[in-house]
Specification:
This protein has about 250 residues and is α/β, with parallel strands linked by helices. It contains eleven helices and seven strands. The structure holds S-adenosylmethionine.
Length: about 250
């Protein structure tokens, strides 16, 4: 009787650990620690270059930013970043830009988070993540990427159109934490997409950011493919190649 119990329990544990569906589940939604290690292992030199820079993205997201730029086949030279803080994400994007002849258009307000919706942006406070331009500049210089970045200081919602100057973008990283700003930025960027662009949105585990992304999916008829990163804490939005034609017919 006891032997039968042991046999059943062992088989159950074996199935749980080794069954295809368990692995599929883990691949779709990997635990945060696994992602962290994966980020370091994927690009160890990038990790060692950036590990002393103070910042708010993980090595995993850093690796995903780098890969998105390297893999992009989009003709635009622009890689957008909104929310640079002290430059950690900028350095990851710029390191990739060096290899594929693109430039980072970095937007930062430096006074920290501006307006907060007390319900949707719960957990954040006005002025959170304030930084300064000198720290940003020094960090970029210490990593040897200052020549690849055009920084625009101010609210990106106002400054972005003139900087992009109808040249579109290949990759955009939006890391602004808040509903209203995230939605405004996506409402500016999605209509200029022509197909093949990638947007990486940080902090989709926060209600406000998630709501902004959901509203964009609804507005675009759920035509944009979404991939979860870090178990959904961030997402990668892939604009389909035929996006322009598809929208021109509507
Ligand atoms: C979470 S931090 C960015 C972290 C950064 N990506 C990193 O790698 O460490 C969010 C940043 O967004 C900036 N920000 C928020 N709203 C902005 C806006 N409308 N325009 C430009 N920057 C903004 C804030 O000043 C803050 O530095």
């Amino acid at each position: 009787m006891f032997r039968k119990e042991v046999k059943h329990t062992t088989r159950f544990i074996f199935r749980l650990v080794f069954s295809a569906s368990a692995w599929q589940q883990a691949a779709k939604n990997p635990p945060y620690f696994f992602c962290f290690i994966q980020g370091i292992v994927r690009h160890p030199l990038l990790f060692s270059k950036t590990r002393k820079i103070d910042g708010l993205i993980s090595p995993y997201i850093g690796a995903k930013l780098y890969d998105a730029v390297i893999k992009s086949k989009h003709p635009s030279k622009n890689v957008i970043e909104v929310g640079a803080y002290k430059g950690l994400s900028t350095i990851h994007l710029a390191t990739a830009c060096r290899k594929v002849n693109k430039r980072v258009k970095s937007f930062e307000i430096f006074s920290g988070l501006p307006e907060i919706d007390s319900i949707l942006d719960k957990g954040f406070n006005k002025g959170d993540f304030s930084s300064d331009v000198n720290t940003y500049e020094n960090n970029l210089k210490s990593c040897g990427v200052r020549d690849l970045v055009d920084l625009t200081i101010g609210d990106a919602r106002q400054t972005m159109p003139a900087v992009l100057n109808n040249d579109g973008f290949a990759v955009a990283f939006l890391d602004v934490d808040l509903y209203e700003i995230m939605k405004d930025l996506m409402l500016q960027l999605i209509p200029i997409c022509r197909g093949g662009e990638v947007l990486i949105i940080h902090d989709t585990d926060h209600d406000g950011v998630r709501k902004a992304v959901n509203e964009i999916h609804a507005l675009t008829g759920h035509t944009i493919k979404e991939k979860r990163l870090e178990g959904g804490a961030s997402v990668k939005l892939e604009i389909p190649q035929n996006y322009f034609n598809h929208n021109a017919h509507e």
